[in-house]
Amino acid sequence: MVDTRIVPSSDPTYPSLLREAGESKPLHVRGTLPRAPGVAIVGTRRATVRARAFTAELAAGFARAGVAVWSGGAHGIDTAAHEGALASGGATVVVLGSGFEQPYPKENIALFREVVARGGALVSLVADDVAPRPQFFIERNGVLAGATRATLVVECPLKSGARSATARARAFGRPVGAVPHSPWSTEGAGCLAELALGAKLVASLSAALALAGIDASGTLPLFAPASLARTELSEPERTTLLAILDGASSVDSICEHTQQSAAAVVSAAVSLLVAGLVRETSMGFEATVSRAAIA
Fold first, then answer.
1. Whose C-alpha in 18, 66, 178, 196 is 20 to 30 A from the C-alpha of 33?
2. What does the pLDDT read at residue 293?
3. Overall domain count for the chain
4. Looking at residue 16, which CATH number applies to its domain?
5. What is the per-residue pLDDT for 225?
6. Residues 6+ apart with CB under 8 A from 54
7. Residue 42, SS3 per DSSP
């Protein structure tokens, strides 16, 4: 078993950004706090399959760029973030809303052990034997937002604990990013609300890295052609992507090209943007993959 150590704000290993944010609560730590710049990834426990896949790819991209991924260890988006970072050999930090001997959720105990074994850390604001409480999760979101360069919300409903992390990030003057969702998506309504509050739109790895102030030149889309096999396209998405490959660059031109409704095209285009298969330029939509990649 890895011993717990108490890290006061005066300790050189205490996250410098957290100290700069005015936070000085001692941290209970197991494992190694990374020296690399960090980004917090947050979202709903009831994440959709696509949101979890996007999160894992995003976290893997951060790991490859030398960025530490911080999250809260919960089901859904948090778990995907930690797993994505680990899959690419990166550092990840779990900030718990409980003591280490009362971890929540218990189903993630094996993941928490792997995080420490692979060079990452578990962090808590309370003693090892303290059970989870609602206020602890709010407080841990303050640590996530304060210790990292930026906070990114991938998917959450309008009322979500994840949004307390973005609120704290704004209070600290840190960048907030949000993945776009369809306006009729209840799962992503919180992301749309964050965009309305001024969050940066994040639909690619480059945008995510730029949010954290990391050089994004030469980065690939989140879903590169090699990963298309696990990114199943719906028929409207496939038809829309093929139209863009044929030169259609606006919603109107795609509608004309495909005979789809504007609503169907907008929904498909948002999904393609989130998947990194399409990007928006000054000239309109542009595909990031070849026709052969989706044949």
1. 178
2. 66
3. 2
4. 3.40.50.450
5. 42
6. 154, 179, 222, 274, 275
7. strand
- Does residue 218 lie within any of the structural domains? no
Structure tokens at 97: 């809303």
What does the pLDDT look like over 123-173, one tens digit per residue? Answer: 999 999 999 999 999 999 999 999 999 999 999 999 999 999 999 999 999
- Residue 214 CB neighbours (<10 A): 18
217 domain-assigned: no
SS (H, E, C) the chain: CCCCEEECCCCCCCCHHHHHCCCCCCEEEEECCCCCCEEEEECCCCCCHHHHHHHHHHHHHHHHCCCEEEECCCCCHHHHHHHHHHHCCCCEEEECCCCCCCCCCHHHHHHHHHHHHCCCEEEECCCCCCCCCHHHHHHHHHHHHHHCCEEEECCCCCCCCHHHHHHHHHHHCCCEEECCCCCCCCCCHHHHHHHHCCCEECCCHHHHHHHCCCCCCCCCCCCCHHHHHHCCCCHHHHHHHHHHHCCCCCHHHHHHHHCCCHHHHHHHHHHHHHCCCEEEECCEEEECCCHHHHC
Which pLDDT value is given to residue 80? 94
Tokens of residue 268, six digits: 């498909």
- Are 276 and 221 spatial neighbours (Cβ–Cβ below 8 Å)? yes
Residues of the chain with pLDDT under 50: 223-230
Say if residue 137 is in the same domain as residue 259. Answer: no
pLDDT for the residue numbered 234? 87
Q: What is the pLDDT of residues 5-30, one digit of tens each?
A: 999 999 999 999 999 999 889 999 99
